[in-house]
Amino acid sequence: MKNLVIVSFPAKVETLDQLKELLEAALPDTRSFDGCISVRTFIEESSNTIHLIEDWETLEHQANYLSWRIETGLLDLLEPLLLGGASSLKATICGPELTDI
């Protein structure tokens, strides 16, 4: 991986299927966004949380992507689906792998 980013979406119990559908519709655009190498999805069933494991050419590419998603209203669509609203969405920006440790 070049630049690892982990994004976690804690769904309300009753909206997990809707969140899956929204991400299924949105992720093709993510995967084709400039600088995106890959996006893998995982569900942590014990907490109804969907995790995206993303790999980006640079963290600047990922920041540009995030700005685009905010501008195009994805957070507004996520707001009613997430436990705690859009502010509960968590992005962990790990960056490049350290190979000297």
From TrEMBL:
Record-linked InterPro entries: ABM_dom, Dimeric_a/b-barrel
Q: Which residues form the signal peptide?
A: none
Q: Where are the transmembrane segments?
A: none
**ABM domain location, by residue?**
5-65
Instruction: Note the superkingdom of the native organism.
Output: Bacteria
> What is the official name of this protein in its record?
ABM domain-containing protein
Which species does this protein come from?
OM182 bacterium BACL3 MAG-120507-bin80
Source species taxonomy: Bacteria, Pseudomonadati, Pseudomonadota, Gammaproteobacteria, OMG group
